[in-house]
Amino acid sequence: MSRMLAYVSPHALPASTALGEPLLRSFLSLARLHRDGWGYAWATGPSAPPVLDTGLRDAPASLSRAAGAPATTALAYLRFASSGTGVSPENLQPFAGDGMAFAHNGALVPRERAEQRLRAPERRALRGTTDSEVYFALLRRGLRGPRTASIETSVAAGVARMRELYPEACLNAMLVARGELVVVHAPGTVGPPLAALAARGGAQLPPGHDAGYNALWTTLRPTGARVVATTGVDLSPRADGSTWRPLERDAVHVFAPDGDRRMAQVR
Questions:
Q1: In this structure, which CATH number among 3.60.20.10, 2.60.120.380, 3.20.20.140, 2.60.40.1120 belongs to the domain 2-265?
Q2: Predicted confidence band of residue 145 (pLDDT cuts 50, 70, 90)
């Protein structure tokens, strides 16, 4: 159970500029509830693999410092550990592999159902105990080798295979790959973890921590930055005229720094 916030920009910008200070502060404030670690991945072009920074403590200050790096594509993450997965550096997202960074919001139970699909080298490469890392390993398999299909088609095919394994689960994910932002919006039919959120956060939960918890939203900032977010941040219309819109469900969306936007359905 995590919160994610990402952007892609035609120019390398720090997060505070690309997102705007109010939006960045709104996301960082969620660390009071999603306090089991933080992560940040960013890239400065299609030929540059993403750089990662993660930590277990002091998310608002540490993540804010990491987000000061100018980037054309960036992904921020706050963790609320699922039951049975330890709070440790090895379990922090985004994960990195094959020149990509990946973060997932959801719980794939039982983890072993997906892990059994891994090949021996893929299993040995796992660092932690999360189902999200296994999900990433399986998605990467379809992205290796010659690019015979678009990245959105390849990721959509991988997500469809995960859906066969986990018919109800939330498969929402974001990737920094090839300098682009790849967004999986496949919330499934599982209910949000409201009891777990309430047990930690009490009666006054942040906005969006309700039945719409697994929805993904997007907006275009005046800077030209395309932003995608999980709920919890302020999604109200802004004075600059930018408005948030829900992403189409059961689809893989690809956003490029030059403004190109592509999509493939998860079938």
A1: 3.60.20.10
A2: low
Q: If DSSP codes are grouped into helix, strand and coil, which group holds residue 152?
A: helix
Q: 155-212, pLDDT tens digit by residue?
A: 999 999 999 999 999 999 999 999 999 999 999 999 999 999 999 988 789 999 999 9
49-64 average pLDDT score: 96
Residues whose CB falls within 8 Å of the CB of residue 232, separated by 6 or more in sequence, listed in order: 3, 26, 27, 30, 206, 207, 208, 209
Give the Å distances, CA to CA, from 110 to 42, 82, 107: 31, 12, 9
CA distance 139 to 144: 10
Nearest to 52 by CA among 76, 24, 83: 76
Exposed e or buried b per residue across 235-266, where buried means at least 16 C-beta atoms within 10 angstroms of its C-beta: beebeeeeebeebeebbbbbbbbeeeeeebeb
Q: Which is nearest to 123 in space by CA: 136, 113, 137, 135?
A: 137
Higher-confidence residue of 67 and 239: namely: 67
Q: Which of 21-25, 130-134, 192-196, 258-262 has the lowest mean pLDDT?
A: 192-196
Report the C-alpha gap between 265 and 202 in whole angstroms.
37
Cα-Cα-Cα-Cα dihedral sign, residues 82, 94, 218, 229: positive
- The edge-to-edge listing of strands for the beta sheet with 261-265 is 95-97, 100-104, 173-177, 180-185, 251-255, 261-265
Domains in the chain: boundaries: 2-265
What are the counts of helices (DSSP H) followed by strands (DSSP E) for the chain? 8, 13
**pLDDT recorded at residue 84:** 65
